[in-house]
Amino acid sequence: MKLPQNSKIIIYQSERNFSGEELVEIEEMIDEFMGRWNAHGEKLTADYAIPYDRFIVVAVDESSVPTSGCSLDTLNRLMKRIETKFNFGLLNQMRVSYRLNDEIFTIPLTDFKQKVRDGEIPEHANIFHNGVTTLQEFEDNWEMPLAESWVGSLLKV
User: Fold this and answer.
1) pLDDT per position as a tens digit, 99-114
2) Domain limits of the chain?
3) How far, in Å, CA of 139 to CA of 134, rounded?
4) What is the pLDDT of residue 47?
């Protein structure tokens, strides 16, 4: 994404990968939205990426026009439309995504904790930290080994 490193980041994770056809439609929907996205009538400078065909990452340069509650609501409404159209969850924040052996899994947080305790998810599995708030944090800390992540410290791995 070609925005300043301090740009605001919002991450939506899907329960599954997007198919090629879904990806084309999702990109069309987001492109159309980005062309008119504004805060209090002023156009927002924003970009997005769809890493691993599974996450939708939106970045907003708030240096000239900050986001507003209403502008973020419209973004969430778009994600709800996408979620409904393609029948996958994007707005459920009580799930964790991790990568193990080049496969990505997204499961409820409670199941994740139990799988870690049971040793089903090893410390070297990569966790996606969807709570990062800036483009710099996204680039540096979005995906990291379980043992080094916020989940690792939470679970005292």
Assistant:
1) 999 999 999 998 998 8
2) 8-86, 95-155
3) 9
4) 97
For residue 103, what is the enclosing H or E element? strand 103-108
Q: How far apart are CA 112 and CA 109, in angstroms?
A: 5
Beta bridge partners of 107: 96
Query: Are 132 and 3 spatial neighbours (Cβ–Cβ below 8 Å)?
Result: no
List of the chain residues with pLDDT < 70: 151-157
The helices-and-strands tally (H runs, E runs) of the chain is 5, 9
Dihedrals phi, psi of 74, to nearest 5 degrees: -65, -35
Residue among 56, 131, 55, 146 at smallest CA distance from 98: 146
